[in-house]
Structure formats: structure tokens, C-alpha cells
Amino acid sequence: MLQHRPADARGHVKFGWLDTWHTFSFGSYHDPRYMGHSVLRVINDDFIRAHSGFDTHGHRNMEILTCMLQGTLSHRDSMGHHRTLQSGEWQMLSAGQGITHSEMNHGDIDVHLLQIWLHPQQDETEPCYQQKTFDPKPGMTLIASPDAHDDSFKIGQDVYVWQGRIAAGTVELPSSAKRLGWLHVIQGELGTHGLVLNPGDGLAITHEQALTLQVTQAAEFIFFDLP
Q1: Strands 18-22 and 139-145
Q2: What span, in angstroms and rounded, lies between the C-alpha atoms of 197 and 215?
Q3: 187 strand-pairing partners
């Protein structure tokens, strides 16, 4: 079963320094139909204005991925990390027993990022920080997996996160009839089963044996293979 989540149907909050779109219920946006999908809890599509950002705040018992799409972000956390995230990089925080951090845009252009939260298999683990630049090659790149294979992030959940970059043609997602999936389109245009997917769109995938995407405009997307 497939369920299309159009970009303009997402929750939208805009105030001062932040313009954000919520795929699932988050903060002041609540829709009981969209509380997550399997262990995937949050996809926030954030635009952070220059010289602003998220002051120090806390997280606990959540696997948090950040995908940098534009700009530069300064990260500082309670584990002692002070890092800079550039466009094209990924960050992963395993919050576990609890961390605090800040995310500030000290640059002169807006930051555009995706922040993704997934429930872990086990709570109260030791917090962990990871940051990587993955090869922006065409095709499917594994970003996170339970065993960190193919140089992916190690994530504390039975989840595989893929980033796809397809210029044209078709691509088959690594889906299974025994598992769930979620597709988030970053840019371009994709089609499947009569649906047309545009930037910001989501697609819930429930127990599909195989799913083939037709790329009608050079596309970039994230695919979550979920338990």
C-alpha cells in the first residue's frame, strides 16, 4: 500500500529566524493521522536564517540525523564536540541517556537542512556523535544501518537509511513485503503507480514487495527501510 503525503499538506510554522515544514506532528503542529511511520518519528524541513539558530536544548532516547542541503551550521554539544557542518554533510546524534546541544547559523546565507528523528531499539544508551561526507555519486548511497556496513553511520535501530541521486530512468527501492518504508523527495520529480512526487513530498510504503521509481527530472531523495 502507498500513501502520498504532498509537501504543501505538511505542517508549516514560520517565525522570525525559522521557516519549517513538518512531515509528522511536531511542536505546535498536531495531526493524529501523522504521528510517525513505524519508528520514524520526525522529518523537519528547516530553513534557518543567517546569524540565527537553535540555542542550547536537550534530547533523550532518540536517533537524530541531520542532512545539510545548503549553508554552514555550527554545532556545539555537552559531549564536548564543537563542529561545523557544511552543505552535503550528514550528522548523527544518538541521544541515549541525554545530551544538550546548539545549532547556529553564523553565515550570511540561510541554512537549509532536514532533521530526522527515529526511535531507538534500546533506551538510555551512551550518547554518541558521528559526522560524515558521503560520496555524491549517482545511485543509492547507504547513510545509516544497524551494523555500519558500507561505511554508513551505525544507528541503534533496525533501520536502513538511503540517499538516492538519479539523473534519469528507473530505480528499484530495497523494499520488502515484511517491512515498511518512507520516501522523502529532496529535489526533482519521481513517479510510481500513477503518483507524481515533487520536492518535499513523502510516500508511506506499507508491505510492498518491490517498488520501482521513474525519474522524470533529475532527482534526489531519502528512503527509509523500516521495521
Answers
A1: unpaired
A2: 10
A3: 220
The phi and psi torsions of 7 (rounded to 5 degrees) equal -55, -40
Question: Which SS3 state, helix, strand or coil, does residue 146 take?
Answer: coil
Q: What residue has cell string 550570511?
A: 108
CATH class of residue range 2-226: mainly beta
For residue 50, the Cα-to-chain-centroid distance in whole angstroms is 22
Where exactly are the structural domains of the chain? 2-226
Task: Print pLDDT tens along the chain (227 aa).
Answer: 999 999 999 999 999 999 999 999 999 999 999 999 999 999 999 999 999 999 999 999 999 999 999 999 999 999 999 999 999 999 999 999 999 999 999 999 999 999 999 999 999 999 999 999 999 889 999 999 999 999 999 999 999 999 999 999 999 998 788 999 999 999 999 999 999 999 999 999 998 888 999 998 899 999 999 99
Cα 117 from Cα 98, distance rounded (Å): 14
Cβ atoms of 202 and 5 closer than 8 Å? yes
Query: Biggest alpha carbon distance in the chain?
Result: 49
